[in-house]
Each structure stands twice: as structure tokens, then as C-alpha cells.
Design a protein that fits this description.
The complex is a heterodimer.
Chain A (H helix, E strand, L loop, with lengths): L3 E4 L2 E4 L5 E7 L5 E8 L3 E8 L6 E2 L7 E3 L5 E6 L8 E8 L10 E2 L3 E5 L1
Chain B lengths: L2 E3 L4 E5 L4 E3 L2 E3 L5 E8 L6 E7 L7 E2 L2 E6 L4 E6 L8 E9 L7 E3 L3 E6 L1
Classes of the chains: A mainly beta, B mainly beta.
Chain lengths: 115, 116
């Protein structure tokens, strides 16, 4: 049981390049989230999904897009990377309310540097 | 919008001593959950303890316990018999009860140092 897997773990991009971060979970979780973590800022929600085919904006969505074509995968895209997007990105997932354990499972993070 | 405030950017404690990390939150909801997460240098987010707002009894997990003051909207974490392995960033987090998007709202974190 792998839980939540994020790929890649590290990446360096040049300004203006694009990339996609992949989050995969094997727990049949309905809800999935992308957060970014910056020093002194805690974790801030970028986008989230409450089910296959759905996405919604979080607190800091600008410059990012997401897709949830399959229930187990949640993709985070950067179309034109900027230095301000240098951060550590976390994916998380959880079950629907009322399904017992309401804990969240986090991936191990992706450290992205934009130069 | 809900907010979570951790007023102590850094804390330190001597090994085997007790330390308390503070957290306050702002919400108009009556049904919600509160969490403390630990993030060691490995970056992994580890759930330490959670509290349901409808429960009056404070949650306890081994050396970790909380002081949940619902009226004051306060949720502090007490670590007893501190160990070197407790050194990490600690995040307080809030989640609405059922009917929302279930997203977690985090505080900015407290960096805990444990001195031998």
C-alpha cells in the first residue's frame, strides 16, 4: 500500500518552462488537494478536487492548473514557471465525511526551484 | 474564512522536559476538527493528534496531549518528556465539519528544537 505518491521529488525549471506534477493515491480517496509550503507561511491550498472530473480553486491558485481525469490521480500544472513558484509542493487526500477515518494522507513533497 | 494562528515561530525545550505549543483559530462554525501535524527534516507530514470540536474531553496520544478551549478558540499541544526525535516543525490545522470541501487550513508553524 503506497499511500500518496508524488513525482518527481525534485525539479529545477527555467523561468517560462512548463511542467506537471503528478499525485497518485491508491486508497480510493475521494478528495485530493495540492498545497505549497514556503518558509514562514505554512501550507497554503492551491487547488483541490472533491471527486473525479471536479476541481476548484484554493487560496493561491494563480499560475497553476489542475486536472482530475481519474479518481486516483491529481495533476498540478505550471504553464509558464516563475521564480515566485519556487516552493515545496504537497499533495494530500482524504475520504468523504462519514466514512470512518477522516485523516489525511500526505505525499512526501516535491521541491521545485525556478531559476 | 477560517484562520489558524500560531504565535510562536520557534520554541526550544530541554530533553525530558515539557513544552506547550500554542494555536488559536477563528471560525463561525460549530462543527469542526483540529489537528497537530509534525514535519521533521524529511518533509513528511505526520499526524500527531486530532480533536473533534463536539468532544469536551481533550485528546491524548502517549506523550502528546492537547488543551482544547472551544469558547476561547484555543488548541495548544503539550509534549511531555521531550525527546530528541520530537525536534521538528509543528503545524496546527483546522477543518470544517461535514458538508464542506474538507480542506485543511494550516497555521504558519512552530519550529521546535530539543536540546540534549
Amino acid at each position: 500500500n503506497a499511500g500518496v505518491t508524488q513525482t518527481p521529488k525534485f525539479r529545477v525549471l527555467k523561468t517560462g518552462q512548463s511542467m506537471t506534477l503528478l499525485c497518485a493515491q491508491d486508497m480510493n480517496h475521494e478528495y485530493m488537494y495540492w498545497y505549497r509550503q514556503d518558509p514562514g507561511m505554512g501550507l497554503r491550498l492551491i487547488h483541490y478536487s472533491v471527486g473525479e472530473g471536479t476541481t476548484a480553486k484554493g487560496e493561491v491558485p494563480d499560475g497553476y492548473n489542475v486536472s482530475r481525469l481519474k479518481k486516483q490521480n491529481f495533476l498540478l500544472g505550471l504553464e509558464s514557471a516563475a521564480p515566485s513558484q519556487t516552493s515545496v509542493y504537497f499533495c494530500a487526500s482524504t475520504l468523504l465525511p462519514g466514512q470512518g477515518n477522516y485523516g489525511y494522507t500526505f505525499g512526501s513533497g516535491t521541491r521545485l526551484t525556478v531559476v | 474564512a477560517q484562520t489558524v494562528t500560531q504565535s510562536q515561530p520557534e520554541m526550544s525545550v530541554q530533553e525530558a522536559e515539557t513544552v506547550t505549543l500554542s494555536c488559536t483559530y477563528d471560525t463561525s462554525e460549530s462543527d469542526y476538527y483540529l489537528f497537530w501535524y509534525k514535519q521533521p527534516p524529511s518533509r513528511q507530514m505526520i499526524l500527531v493528534i486530532r480533536q473533534e470540536a463536539y468532544k469536551q474531553q481533550n485528546a491524548t496520544e502517549n506523550r502528546f496531549s492537547v488543551n482544547f478551549q472551544k469558547a476561547a478558540k484555543s488548541f495548544s499541544l503539550k509534549i511531555s518528556d521531550s525527546q530528541l526525535g520530537d525536534a521538528a516543525m509543528y503545524f496546527c490545522a483546522y477543518r470544517r465539519g461535514q458538508g464542506g470541501s474538507e480542506k485543511l487550513v494550516f497555521g504558519k508553524g512552530t519550529k521546535l528544537t530539543v536540546n540534549p
